[in-house]
């Protein structure tokens, strides 16, 4: 994860937490995250199949990482509820992970050379540029 991705996650997490505070909780943040995780996993399998580099080890590692993220967010909710009696900060954390999953989903599309148009194509070009390994 590079500096730009970390910045995007921090900003989306802060905005999501603030929005949660303003509307008294989002409620759907973790459900949305779980849905995006499933979409990311399936699109990752599709792009690996498309590019002929499907690996059960890579897929398993991806699943383990996603389970860890869900456990981490669950711990954030439990800790925040215990200490502050709220859930707004944990909603922000969940929303930042939703943003990360969305970037990964679009990255999978880019790797499959999926056709995109307009503003979304520009967004994907930026994502692709930011997520490609740096060449030394």
Layout of strands and helices, then pairs:
Blueprint: H1 3-22, H2 29-50, H3 56-83, H4 88-111, H5 118-131
Helix pairs in contact: 1-4, 2-3, 2-4, 3-4, 4-5
Structure characterization notes:
The chain has about 140 residues and is mainly α. It has one domain (about 5-130). It is about 80% helix and about 0% strand. The chain contains five helices and no strands. It has helices at about 5-20, 30-50, 55-85, 90-110, 120-130. Helix 2 runs antiparallel to helix 3 (about 55-85) and helix 4 crosses helix 5 (about 120-130). The longest helix has 28 residues, at about 55-85.
Index terms:
single chain; 136 residues; mainly alpha; 5 helices; 79% helix
In round numbers, the mean pLDDT is 82
How many separate helices?
A: 5
Strand element count = 0
Q: State the helical fraction.
A: over 70%
The coarse silhouette is globular
Structural class: mainly alpha
Radius of gyration from the CA trace? 16 Å
| Number of domain modules | 1
* N-C termini distance: 17 Å
Order of helices and strands: HHHHH
Percent of residues in beta strands: under 5%
